[in-house]
Amino acid sequence: MISKHLQAGSALSLVYEREDPQAQINLNPTTSPETFDVPDANIIIRSSDLVKFRVHKSVLALASPFFRDLVSLPQPSDSESVDGLPVVEVPEDSELLNSLVSFLYPVRAVIPNSYEKVLYLLAACQKYEMVSVQSSIRAKVKCGEFPAPRGTESFPAYAIASISWLIPEMESAARQTLDHPMTFKALGKGLRLFEGWALRDLASFRSRCRDSLITCLDSFLEVRPPGPSSIWIGCPEALSRASRDYRQNPILPKWLSQFLLRNQNYLELETFTCSLDIHSTIRAEYLAAFQSHGSCHFCSAVHMNHGLTFCVELENKLTQAYHKS
Q: Per the database record, which ranges form the BTB domain (predicted)?
């Protein structure tokens, strides 16, 4: 929220109320950078830890409609100044501000040392309407120049992104959380960063992904053509278990139905205590299940002629279901 002084247009000195998560938690604090001092600067941005950044109004105005409007306001005679330069106070700390300002000048970008800090940097860009800077940061994350979330870091990343409505980062982090259990242990200290609605939305997203995967496995339990598993109809072991009306009600080989049902049960019972990336291990599980039935000449022939195609189709459809939600 912008201070009442700015809303009234009566001062260039600016103070933000500390609503953003960075103001509430300082992850991996480091020593403040030296004062950023550009030759011929005509304005000072002062960080929350009182580090001064001497920059140009024209550069700020070009990068940010927010600052363009701010510097266009007349400066009252009693407003704060340092060495004759007007002062703008912001809630970001000097480490974040140093990264942000480095994008405004032809100098090497200052790289944050964690993905959480990248998110706070993106949030600052969003707040100050620095669209081109935000795009540059996202490009650097994508190419690996800036940190990206690893492992269970995706949970606090989702929480931070949701607070600032960083939609691409929310979607990416949510997808990455599916590769890990959603438990208190996995969430860890990052749990305190979550708004209630964000935690509910993430849990709902996980449930939708589980349902898509279960529906996919259901399609492989369908024995009639054109179901992909219809190629396995005719296994002698299955015939021995079938009723007399086998042609009307065929059944899958036991090894195959158990393999598919085992994955379904796993998803239904362990939605939040397991990872949902079953597509990454399904081929190995298929081969292990088939080998347990390797003495069957019928299934061996089907596997020899169609097994790879069947397995790839199962893997691909599970991957599509995983990314569908």
A: 39-113
Q: What are phi and psi of 85, to 5 degrees?
A: -105, 135
Average pLDDT, the chain: 86
| Cα-based angle 63, 84, 10 (whole degrees, multiple of 5) | 65
DSSP three-state, residue 294: coil
Percent of the chain with pLDDT over 70: 86
Q: What per-residue confidence (pLDDT) applies to 17?
A: 37
pLDDT reading at 26 higher than 80: no
Helix (H, G, I), strand (E, B) or coil at 279: helix
Q: What pTM was estimated for this model as a whole?
A: 0.80
Residue 150 vs residues 64, 172, 194, 277: alpha-carbon distances, Å? 31, 12, 18, 16
Among the four given CATH numbers 3.30.710, 2.60.40, 3.40.50, 1.25.40, the one describing domain 4-106: 3.30.710
Query: 249-257 — which CB contacts under 8 Å span 24+ positions?
Result: 250/223, 250/224, 251/223, 252/221, 252/223, 253/293, 253/296, 253/299, 254/293, 255/289, 255/290, 255/292, 255/293, 255/299, 256/229, 256/232, 256/289, 256/290, 257/221
pLDDT given at position 244: 57
Within the chain, all domains assigned CATH 3.30.710 are found at: 4-106
CA distances from 54 to 31, 37, 72, 121 (A): 19, 5, 18, 19
Task: Provide the token pair at 162.
Answer: 């949701």
Quick check: helix, strand or coil at residue 33? coil
Tokens for 164? 């600032």
Pairing of strands 81-82, 52-55: unpaired
